[in-house]
Amino acid sequence: IIGNSVKLFNVLRVASRVADTDASVLILGENGTGKDLIATAMHENSSRKNKPFIAVNCGAIPSDLLESELFGYESGAFTGAVKSKPGKLEMAQGGTFFLDEIAEMSINLQAKLLRVIQTKEIERLGGVSSRKMDIRFIAATNRDINELIEKNIFREDLYYRLKVIEIKLPALRERKEDIQLLIDHFLAKYSKAENKFIAQPEVYEILESYDWPGNIRELENVIHRSIILAKSNVITVTDLPPEIIENQKEVIKIQGQKTLLEAETEFRKMFILKTLRKTESKAEAAQILGINRTHLYKLLNQLGIE
User: Fold this and answer.
1) CA 56, CA 159: separation in Å to the nearest integer?
2) Which domains does the chain have, with CATH numbers?
3) Could you tell me what percent of the chain has a pLDDT over 70?
4) 278 in the Ramachandran plot: left (φ > 0), alpha (ψ -120 to 50) or beta?
5) pTM, two decimal places
6) In what order do the strands lie in the sheet with 165-168?
7) Which residues, other chains included, contact 251 with Cβ-Cβ below 8 Å and sequence gap of 6+?
8) Radius of gyration from C-alpha coordinates of the chain
């Protein structure tokens, strides 16, 4: 989990406080924001860390198969069930069960999951007896749960069972001060030991001006692509995808959906970040910006820059 922005720090602070509890957690956030990383980190920082961490993506498994995947089945439960098989929930005994994209689960299956959470018991398909379970539940979604509840697509009682603690992950465009650290991390990740990649300062500026609809996952893919296509170990503007370059041309245009205050705040934030990157200390940055250090620290705090 890379970054030192105030928004990320607030998320991590809550996650660390509830990690070593049995409280159910619901993680909200757009695709690519790292919901799975937060879930994993919470498990690894809990007393259950030496027990299983089982993750199931509810949107990746057909709904007619998800029930048997979660609950398992006894021999003869249905055609093709030649022998008994434990479900993912049983496999998570003593540990953490992570339900990614929980909003994709059918309403009927949500009822069965709710019963497991309430009774702490599970029954395989075709089974006649229940098994006691000790599981910590973490769920995640990129959907608006309240809207789904209004449409009767998601159970309100399950929602409140899962959201004992609710964590909202910020989109990457909401914490642009972390982009430089993320770029450096991905450059190191995809570099070979004998061939380390770096990026031109202009590359950082262009990537920081982009809104990243695909969030961290999209940024990682862009860096990986740039390394593959680069003609040397220095990533240049020409190595970036065309849509990123095109976006840079658009940023100089006035965006009607932003107020003057929002546009000024974004410009101040990016300008200060750019200055900090080119200097070795905050004192030097303050001198270049033409302000004293106290004023700079006040601005850093107001703009959420660590």
Assistant:
1) 18
2) 6-170 (3.40.50.300), 173-303 (1.10.8.60)
3) 93
4) alpha
5) 0.79
6) 53-57, 96-100, 136-141, 25-28, 165-168
7) 209
8) 24
Alpha-carbon span 150 to 133, nearest angstrom: 31
CA distance 29 to 149: 17
Alpha helix ranges (H) inside 34-178: 35-44, 63-71, 88-91, 107-119, 145-150, 156-162
Measured over all CA atoms, what is the biggest interatomic distance in the chain, rounded to whole angstroms? 78
List Cα–Cα distances, 65 to 69, 78, 87, 89, 109, in angstroms. 6, 12, 11, 14, 11
pLDDT in tens, 206-261: 998 899 999 999 999 999 999 999 999 999 999 999 888 877 666 555 455 667 67
Contact 95, 54 (CB under 8 A): yes
Closest of 28, 39, 276, 270 to residue 173, by C-alpha: 270
pLDDT at position 79, please?
66
């229940």: which residue's tokens? 130
Whether 38 and 167 have beta carbons less than 8 Å apart is answered as yes
- Token pair recorded at residue 60: 């990746």
Q: How big is the chain, counted in residues?
A: 306
